[in-house]
Amino acid sequence: MLNKLGFRFSVDHVLAGEVIGLCTMPSHKTFIIKKKLAKKQRQNRPIPHWIRMRTDNTIRYNAKRRHWRRTKLGL
């Protein structure tokens, strides 16, 4: 099966009537997808230390930090 972006979509589990699938990323990506992935990779970093000093430690961490396995992008 294919999802809305044309990635191969395999049905893994059926849980309480809902289909939970696994979307696999192809090795040949389109340029638009590659740009989106690059932007998300740049955004996924801790805040610089000088910002913590400038704001008197009111901003302590990046609240939008994303783990590659726990939170998916949904591209």
TrEMBL record:
UniProt xrefs under SUPFAM superfamilies: Ribosomal protein L39e
Xref: PROSITE patterns: RIBOSOMAL_L39E
Pfam families: Ribosomal_L39
Keyword Ribosomal protein recorded: yes
GO cellular component, one term: cytosolic large ribosomal subunit
Entry keyword Ribonucleoprotein: yes
Example GO biological process: translation
Gene Ontology terms, MF aspect: structural constituent of ribosome
Keywords: Ribonucleoprotein, Ribosomal protein
Annotated family: Belongs to the eukaryotic ribosomal protein eL39 family.
Family annotation (HAMAP family): Ribosomal_eL39
Protein name (record): 60S ribosomal protein L39
Organism: Ceratopteris richardii (Triangle waterfern)
Lineage: Eukaryota, Viridiplantae, Streptophyta, Embryophyta, Tracheophyta
